[in-house]
Every structure is written in structure tokens, then in C-alpha cells.
Design brief:
Blueprint (H helix, E strand, L loop, with lengths): L21 E2 L12 E14 L2 E7 L4 E7 L5 H8 L6 E10 L7 E12 L16 H6 L1 H4 L3 H22 L4 E2 L5 E2 L11 E4 L3 E5 L4 H11 L1 E9 L12 E10 L3 H22 L1 H6 L5 H4 L7 E3 H10 L12 H8 L6 E7 L16 E9 L4 E8 L4 H10 L8 H8 L5 E7 H9 L20
Parallel strand pairs: 1-2, 4-6, 7-11, 13-14
Antiparallel strand pairs: 2-3, 2-5, 3-4, 5-6, 8-10, 9-10, 11-12, 12-17, 14-15, 15-16, 16-17
This protein binds 4-amino-1,4-dioxobutan-2-aminium adenosine-5'-monophosphate (4AD) and magnesium ion (MG).
Magnesium ion (MG) binds next to strand 16.
């Protein structure tokens, strides 16, 4: 047996440490002005001016310009820095100095450096400051994530996800995870990804955790699930992914109005949080934040009937009974500075599980929240059928295999109550926050009709 210490043991020298200088991340620079520190990162850019070189180091938390003066450094150190190529990994030691003109507000006066891996000129880093096509960049997504705009979008995504958890955790919801392999459809049978499950049994990748959420709500009162969901939709729009992340709250003893209230409150909370905590990222993304600061309650509320009339006055060809297209959604929100809430859709364009309107049973108690600026539907949800006989009839109308839904029917046999919830697509929400043209840049590794790599 080897007597070598475990590689992660905290004893012994750390291989790349240069000196006694304290290792910090660039984001912590303001707390270490005047101190000798070590930064560990990659070369973002290098400017040379005679006997001084200015490597800009990025370490994942930020960027800092370093100032390396030839006369202050051992010859090999200066030469190594001078010869750095884009994305070479290196560590650098020096003293932090406040510098109002520098990006980030600080500079590092270099006293030592060590190159970990120099990127070869024979195979230079493929993403250069020149313009690349989106396909090229998407093929290099594993590297593209290092670029400033992509990095900023993913940090906004992280903020949104943290905000979602915070909102539900602090409003009495319990996180109850739902399965990804499922025996039945939730959102229609035409968009299911079928998986070969050891040959005999058919299972599908989940389209939504909702049905399980309903069971969980009867156990915990208020629950949410949050994970990847899958749709075999052959749509090539800027709003569609085949794999996307959805957060879905579900509440027992809740009606459509309560569902709308929670959806509105969540969007207001998340938008304010992104504006507050991710101002720097939104700046990098050149987002016009005045478009987001107006996102406050109350949101305009329209019934489907009213929405159709409004669309017709705006020149849409929609007829009562039809579903909104992308252009309709954009038209619907064009006069508003915040999301629009539309409810009570014709039942026949909605999924099987919606509770019908009491006065007009041809309407489903479903609701969509449609974001402004052309971002479209970001939330869909509503009130569920709680009556056993009605649900049985709907399953039959939709030709859904009853045996796969027996457990779901149990929820209507054992203490059924009115209940409801919704789903919010993380990528659509993040695209709106960031002002991005396409949802593909809001997820680290997008899965789309023609893309499953890298
Ligand atoms: O409207 P959807 O299909 O609703 C449901 O799945 C319900 N079962 C949710 C629930 O009530 N628990 O999807 C909800 C949201 C949409 O509003 C949209 O934001 C997002 O999920 N979404 C997609 N995002 C990216 N790509 C796709 N292909 C999406 N399909 C839906
Ligand atoms: Mg929907």
C-alpha cells in the first residue's frame, strides 16, 4: 500500500503554490488592497509595451489586469509572461492596488508568476475576439462558456435558480423530487421521448413533474419540484429546447386565483433579485434594465375571450378556440411593460387535467403568464380536476392508458381537494432577464432539434 498522502489531504505542499502569498479569488480583491496575494487563472488578454507587459487574468470570479515590469522580475518570469498565449493557465503573485480606471477597479503589481500550461501556437485557442458564427460557437460550447457574455448569462441563470429555491423555501413549500423515467404522458402524447427500459416496459422521459407533484401536495400541502424536463418537439424556434429546466409548485386547497397570485409574486421577486444582485452581468449583456424595473404587481389580467378580441383588433387572424402563436403572444404584451396573465382557455386546446370553469364548462381553469418584449409564455399552470368521475371521463376522451393513471385517480378517491400549481421554464425566464435572442445561451449545454453535442 502506498504511504503517499491522499491528493486532497490538506497537509503537504499544494503543487502550484508559488509562495506564502495568500490565494484569493479576484472577486475578493477589495478586501486585500495592499496585500501580497496569489491569483490562479487563465490568460484573457495580453498587452505589451516595451519593458512592461499587462496580462489580464480571469479566474472564473472576475478579471484583473496585472502589471509586470521587466526590471522588477527575474528574467525567466518576465519572459514567460511575455510569451503567454490566450487561455494559457498560470498563477501570478503580486500586490493589489486600487486603480479606478481598471476593469474591476484593481490591478496587480506582479512579483512572481508560474505558467501551468502554455497553449501552443500550433493549436491556438479557437475562439478569438473576431466574429464567429453561432454554429461554430455552439460546437465549442465547452470553451465558449469562458467568454464574458456567456459567463454572464450563466451567472444570471445561477441567480435565478438560487432565487427560485429561496422563494419557495421561504414560503412554506417543501422540495419533493419527481421522477424522470415515467410510465405516462403529462403534456400530450405527441412530444414524448421513449426510452427502452430493459426491453419489455415502455417508459418516457418526463415532460413535467406535475402529476407526482399533485400526489406530493396531498402529502405536504405545498410542494415544488425542480429539474430537467423533456419535450420531443420538432420546433426550431428561439424559445424551444428538447431538454429544459422547469420549476413546478403545487398547492392543495388552492384555486386558480391563488395560482395566479403565487406566479405573479414569484416573477416580481426573481426580477428584483436579478436586478439587485446581477447588475454587472446585465451590463456585460448590454441589457436595457429599465425594461425590467417596471416588473411590479399587479400584472394586467385578461381572460382568453378578451385576449382573442384584443388580438383581432391588432390584426391577428386568431379565431375563438385557437391557440396563440408566437406572434400573438408578442402582440398581446406589446402595450404593457410587465408580463400579462391570461386565463380560462378553451378546454380542447389544453391538457386533460384542467378543472372546467363552473359557469362555462367549455373553458379550462388554466393560466399562462406571457413575458413582454417577445419572450412569450414563461409560466403555464392552473387548477386541476379534483372530481374522480370527471377525471376518468377526460382520460378516456384523451385516449390515455387508464392503468398508467390508476395511482393518479387514487388522489381523487382518498381525500380529494381543489388544488393547482404551475410550471416556469428557467431558460425562457433567463433569456428574458438577459435580453437574449435565443434560449440556447441560457443553459450550459443546450439540447435542441439538431444539437445534442458537446
Ligand atoms: O405550459 P407547460 O407545458 O406546462 C406544464 O408542463 C405543466 N404541467 C406545468 C404545471 O402546471 N406544473 O410548460 C410550462 C413552462 C412554459 O410556460 C415554458 O416556460 C416552459 O415550461 N417550456 C419550455 N421551455 C423551453 N423549451 C420548451 N420546449 C418548453 N416547453 C415548455
Ligand atoms: Mg403551456
Amino acid at each position: 500500500m502506498s504511504s503517499e498522502p491522499h491528493p486532497l489531504a490538506e497537509t503537504g505542499p499544494v503543487p502550484v503554490a508559488l509562495s506564502a502569498a495568500r490565494k484569493i479569488r479576484i472577486s475578493e480583491a477589495s478586501r486585500h488592497v495592499g496585500e501580497l496575494v496569489e491569483l490562479q487563472g487563465w490568460l484573457y488578454n495580453l498587452r505589451k509595451s516595451g519593458k512592461i507587459v499587462f496580462p489580464i487574468i480571469r479566474d472564473g470570479s472576475g478579471m484583473m489586469q496585472c502589471v509586470a515590469v521587466k526590471s522588477n522580475l527575474p528574467e525567466p518570469v518576465f519572459e514567460a509572461l511575455k510569451g503567454l498565449t490566450q487561455e494559457s493557465s498560470f498563477t501570478v503573485t503580486g500586490t493589489i492596488r486600487a486603480e479606478a480606471r481598471a476593469t474591476g477597479g484593481f490591478e496587480l503589481d506582479v512579483t512572481d508568476a508560474k505558467v501551468i500550461q502554455r497553449v501552443s501556437e500550433d493549436q491556438p485557442y479557437p475562439i478569438t475576439p473576431k466574429e464567429h458564427g453561432v454554429d461554430f460557437l455552439m460546437d465549442h460550447r465547452h470553451l465558449w462558456l469562458r467568454s464574458r457574455r456567456q459567463h454572464a448569462a450563466i451567472r444570471v441563470r445561477h441567480e435565478v435558480i438560487a432565487g427560485i429555491r429561496e422563494y419557495f423555501d421561504s414560503h412554506g413549500f417543501t422540495l419533493v423530487d419527481t421522477p424522470i423515467f415515467t410510465p405516462a404522458a403529462c403534456e400530450g402524447t405527441t412530444t414524448l421521448f421513449e426510452v427502452d427500459y430493459f426491453g419489455d416496459e415502455k417508459v418516457y422521459l418526463t415532460q413535467s413533474g406535475q402529476l407526482y407533484n399533485e400526489a406530493n401536495a396531498m402529502a405536504f400541502g405545498k410542494v415544488y419540484c425542480f429539474g430537467p424536463t423533456f419535450r420531443a418537439e420538432k420546433s426550431k424556434t428561439r424559445r424551444h429546447l428538447t431538454e429544459f429546466w422547469m420549476v413546478e409548485p403545487e398547492m392543495a386547497y388552492a384555486d386558480l386565483d391563488e395560482v395566479k397570485r403565487v406566479a405573479e409574486e414569484l416573477l416580481v421577486y426573481l426580477t428584483a433579485r436579478v436586478l439587485e444582485n446581477r447588475a454587472e452581468e446585465l451590463k456585460i449583456l448590454e441589457r436595457d434594465t429599465s425594461k425590467l424595473s417596471s416588473v411590479r404587481a399587479p400584472f394586467p389580467r385578461l381572460s382568453y375571450d378578451e385576449a382573442v378580441k384584443l388580438l383581432q383588433t391588432k390584426g391577428s387572424e386568431i379565431e375563438w378556440g385557437g391557440d396563440f402563436g408566437n406572434t400573438d403572444e408578442t402582440l398581446l404584451t406589446e402595450d404593457y411593460d410587465r408580463p400579462v396573465i391570461v386565463d380560462r382557455y378553451p378546454a380542447h386546446i389544453k391538457a386533460f387535467y384542467f378543472q372546467p370553469d363552473e359557469q362555462r364548462p367549455e373553458l379550462a381553469l388554466g393560466v399562462d403568464l406571457i413575458a413582454p418584449e417577445g419572450y412569450g409564455e414563461i409560466i403555464g399552470g392552473g387548477q386541476r380536476i379534483h372530481d374522480l368521475a370527471l377525471l376518468e371521463a377526460r382520460l378516456a376522451e384523451h385516449r390515455l392508458p387508464r392503468e398508467a393513471f390508476e395511482w393518479y385517480l387514487d388522489l381523487r378517491r382518498f381525500g380529494t381537494v381543489p388544488h393547482g400549481g404551475f410550471g416556469m421554464g428557467v431558460e425562457r425566464f433567463v433569456a428574458w432577464m438577459c435580453g437574449l435572442e435565443h434560449v440556447r445561451e441560457t443553459i450550459p449545454y443546450p439540447r435542441m432539434l439538431y444539437r445534442t453535442r458537446p
